[in-house]
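Design a sequence for this backbone.
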């Protein structure tokens, strides 16, 4: 997708801090972090949102979650806990139309964890 920001990031046309990459997914730091650790895990394949998933994407979805688990362990937030969020559509807060899983964590307290606009 020519005009998709995340496709450009995946193709290294837009620089980001990549924390993990394989042939199916890329994980990088969010430019406006809403938590001490805020990463975006995106499929290499352009899928606009959860609402556009098809049956053949089943394995890819598993890959996104297992990547989140792996990174959470590496970043040492697995024990304290973290949030995984998919915003779906404008009404759901989605701004970039390329599927992405938000991984948020690293808070020092429950109070610090409360993020405006997040469940
Ligand atoms: P959404 O609201 O679509 O679920 O989340 C999009 C996320 O992408 C936001 O948290 C936003 O901060 C992040 N973002 C937008 N543009 C860029 C960018 O150019 N680089 C990076 N690393 N993150 C971005
Ligand atoms: Zn894309």
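Sequence:
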């Amino acid at each position: 997708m020519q005009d998709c920001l995340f496709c450009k990031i995946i193709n290294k046309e837009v620089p980001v801090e990549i924390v993990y990459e394989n042939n199916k997914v890329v994980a990088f730091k969010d430019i406006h972090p809403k938590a001490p650790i805020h990463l975006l895990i995106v499929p290499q394949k352009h899928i606009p949102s959860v609402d556009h998933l098809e049956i053949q994407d089943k394995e890819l979805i598993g890959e996104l979650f297992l990547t989140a688990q792996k990174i959470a362990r590496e970043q040492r937030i697995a024990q304290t806990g973290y949030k995984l969020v998919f915003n779906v559509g404008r009404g759901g807060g989605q701004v970039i139309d390329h599927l992405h899983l938000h991984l948020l964590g690293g808070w020092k307290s429950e109070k610090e964890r409360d993020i405006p606009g997040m469940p």
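The mean pLDDT is 95.
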